[in-house]
What does this fold into?
Amino acid sequence: MTAKEEKTGVTKLATMRDVAKLAGVSHGTVSNVLNGSSNVTLEKIKRVEDAIRQLGYKPNSMARILKNCKADPNILFIAPNLSNSLYNSIYSMVRYAASERGIWVDLYLTDDMPYSERAQLTRAQTFGISGAIVITSQPGETELFSKLNREGFQLLFLLREVQGQDYIGFDYRALMLASIRQELAEGRKRIAIITGPREFSPEARCVDGYLSALLEANLQICNDYVVSADNTPESFMRATVGLMNLPEPPEVIYVTDDSCLPGVQQALKILHEDVRQWPRLVILSGQSWPGALPGERTLPLPGNQIGELAISHLVQAFDGELPAGRTNVTLPVRMPPAQNEYHSLAGQGKKIRVLLQSSAQTSPGLVAMVKDFTIKTGIEAEFIEKKYGEVLDTIESSNGEIDVFSTDLVWTPELNACGLVEPLEGYLAADGTSTGDFQGNILHEYCFYKGNMYAMPYSYTAQILLYRRDLFDSLKNKRQYYEIYKKELRVPQTWQEYNDVARFFTRAYNPESETLFGTTLGGNEYNGAACELLPRIWGMAGGSTDGDWLHPTSDRFRKAFKNYVECFKYAQPDALDCWWNEEEQLFASGDAAMMVVFSEHIASLWDRGKNKIAGKIGHSTIPGEYSLLGGWAMAIHSKSRHKQEAYEFVKWSCSGEMAMPNAAMGRILPYKAIRESAELSRSYPWLGDAFNAFEHIGRRYLPSGREAVSGQMRELERIIGRAVRMAVADGQSIDEVLQITEKNIKNILK
It folds into this structure.
């Protein structure tokens, strides 16, 4: 502290010039480092960063914003509130999609007050805002909107349509029509609807769909069942009290604004303490969660789709790429599957035994939630948990002791060859259960063999790449990598790049690396090594061919094998004995820069309370794009003595209504609703990569035309694992190892 600072008691803040002086560089060099410029040498970057730390320099963030505001467009998001889950999900996706494109989003909430919206739009241009995404409270204010259009201000209206303006929304009429048809088909005819003000197009179209469904069914319309309220819980409460005091109260009440649902529930609680006496509530919501109360249904509206489209629209507008004329997009909304009906079995009180793989990904959630199954069916489930390598042996040795089992999708052929799996078509046809809401292509891969269905998808997983985003974004790392390899540090797109980056982030090869290891590996002999080698074979050769992983002396196999063996130099010392659970733990500790892993193993990494790298993780498709399909299905053992009860468990564990709770527990079912869920997209941002991986998926199956034999697949995978161990741990030459491996594989296939 200087004498002047001591006298005044005020500490002088360090400036950029102070940093430049201490670092012995120019003012411009400091500016380039702060702005992430790539044309500064590594040595100067280190000097500037050291000077910043010593001086405690803080960049003037406001000055930087003002400097850059013309370069990057800012937009305004205007909504009545964020307590409505749909508005919230749209805003979350808008903010996320905008940040990916370098766009800043300002939020303004109007509480559905037109004057508040007008004031904010009028001020927007003054503050350099380029455009606005609006859920309007004043759809009739066309004069103001037209004026803004003429002045070059980009406007896009969501959900609530404005005449003559760009608009993106949902087909509320069709959704309501389909939903009420479903209620009528199930025998409920006294159906009421509570909406917000019908000056807004969603409310008007919901009522239109409601009336059309009743007219279609030749039912008399009761005007008392159609109620317009303010969008507040209090107003919806009053409306509910009025409905329930009618001479014939409704059997079903539609609620078009889920932020007002507490008011509806409070009214019903006052009138009927027992929830079993409540009418069915059907709620339009931006959430995909099923109803929490008996009989409650949710009609999920995919706000993430709206948000993504909104940002794409504005980007096109800013770039002058919008087609002529006004944009008017009405998205269809998929009806959720009807709730499963569970049979009241004559044998209530029976027990079934369920075999699961014992892992943090597949067992705990199901075990924790099984009370729901027992309540619905009266059937108790006893769980048997085995390690991966023991599950198949237990299935094969069971003589009626096991009723249901979880099966790795690659086991289906050999289990069928042994006659150990019960076909499901008869059960599905008997109770009308549909499989149409599964991702169709995934359903086929998991559950069918020779045209017959033997299982239901229980856990979908595909390999994706996780990496430390903070390390890849570091200017120091970028410059150092460039000086070594003369190319950009980026998320690896090839397997050779992967090894280069892994070496760079391994401290044994780069003493300045912030991580001990460049990558994790899981070379466990059971099937870990095979699962990590196969994507390298496919990625280096541009795709998979029939049985290509069973020809070790081929050029493509040799090239991939060599790459994989090299990668062990940059991984944890015990990688040969690790499986994906151990990889996950290592990555979560912050000691590894990258990890290729099955998606079912990574949900917990986004939990900020459990690991120190949460918030620093990036995700991408794996190098070479060709991922290995993994996961589990549920099947009935052919020797079960309780096959109908076993079927009820399979149907429950793999049902659409359990999909969201299971996803929250970290297990992803391949349902369309899961892929489209805005909540899950925010919680599990890698989910899109996992589902997209299916487009370039590889399979560890036997060559076509070859009949499965019990235990054959396991032995083949172990042969691959032993080959990796011979090369990595024993130091045998790659050529010698591959010749031995080819001979061993041929012996098994004979």
User: Anything to note?
Assistant: The radius of gyration is 30 Å.
